[in-house]
Design brief:
The protein is α+β, with helices and mostly antiparallel strands. It has helices at residues 29-32, 34-45, 72-84, 123-131, 138-148, 155-160, 180-186, 188-197, 213-218, 227-254, 260-277; strands at residues 19-24, 53-59, 64-69, 94-98. Bound molecules: zinc ion. This is Reverse transcriptase.
Length: 303
């Protein structure tokens, strides 16, 4: 991120669906502490429950909480309250910014985009371009977006938002914190799945030795790839991540253990649907696995 960037400048160009930013007007503990914010603003003034909120992400650089609501109805309701009660404390202690799509219009091309942790300067632009890559259908864009923001509802993310009791990977014998990177790349289960994908099924999957976390998660690679080829690579990688994430959700919600070969078959099926849709890249591939409806974006049930 460029030094001295103003507040407006880090609003991502892609827009953040159903997301509202609450930026503390003063760098005081009472405004920037998560628990206090959740209690006074989220639960108190806005009257939201855990079910209404997809995630609350603290943005250190902006000294702001980015709150992603479950759906558009809740988002609209909250936005309305924020306008109505802008002058009422504690809301008045925060500058409220709408990060949803309409915000897209006020951000110009020259603005730098959100930093992504662990990436070298200059690369975030590539990341944000890939998140919204025209080759991806909406569902894969959503997954890429949540991956880049590290807000996919994995256990460590839910735990840090106070919405899950256990930050540990659900795979038996793993024991690591389930981060976004862990579930899609570092976990042994993910390793097995990527290894399986490395067989002959995907003509556009980069060869095993050049498959890196940066490439898999964000589509960033030091190797120059022609755009037409990259488009196919990125779609392939996204479809595999989608299948890995789905298999993880089936494990958590339905206690179904999907073997790597079936996960990869699922990815291949997604790819086939997307490629068949050809000129209509924004269609949503429908998937089913043994007739079990898969609802990927639901938060993990917490009791
Ligand atoms: Zn694991």
């Amino acid at each position: 991120m460029t030094e001295g960037a103003g507040h407006e400048r880090t609003i991502p160009r892609v827009g953040l669906r159903c997301t509202i930013r609450f930026q503390a007007r003063a760098a005081e503990e009472r405004l920037t502490a998560r628990t206090g914010f959740c209690r006074s603003v989220i639960m108190g003034q806005l009257g939201l429950t855990v079910e209404n909120v997809r995630c609350i992400q603290w943005n250190q650089q902006e000294k702001a909480f980015d709150v992603t609501l479950m759906d558009l109805n809740i988002f609209n309701r909250v936005a309305e309250t924020c306008v109505k009660e802008a002058g009422v404390s504690p809301l008045s202690d925060y500058r409220v910014v709408n990060l949803d799509r309409p915000n897209f219009r006020v951000v110009t091309e020259r603005e730098p985009v959100s930093p992504v942790r662990g990436l070298a300067l200059g690369e975030p632009t590539t990341v944000w371009r890939n998140v919204n890559h025209p080759a991806l259908p909406n569902r894969l864009r959503d997954l890429s977006w949540m991956t880049a923001h590290e807000i996919l509802p994995v256990r460590s993310v839910m735990h840090s938002r106070g919405m899950g009791a256990n930050p540990t990977c659900p795979r038996q014998g793993c024991g690591a914190h389930e981060t976004v990177r862990h579930v899609l790349w570092e976990c042994t289960a993910a390793g097995d799945q990527w290894a399986m994908a490395g067989s002959l099924q995907f003509p556009y999957l980069p060869a095993g030795e050049v498959l890196t976390a940066q490439l898999v998660l964000y589509g960033v690679s030091p190797k120059k790839v022609p755009p037409a080829l990259f488009q196919k690579q990125w779609l392939t990688l996204s479809a595999i991540k989608d299948a890995i994430w789905t298999s993880r959700n089936l494990l958590v919600r339905k206690r179904m253990l999907i073997p790597p070969v079936a996960v990869i078959r699922m990815a291949a099926a997604t790819l086939k649907v997307v490629v068949a849709a050809g000129g209509r890249p924004r269609t949503q591939p429908q998937r089913s696995l043994a007739s079990v409806p898969i609802r990927t974006w639901e938060p993990e049930p917490h009791n």
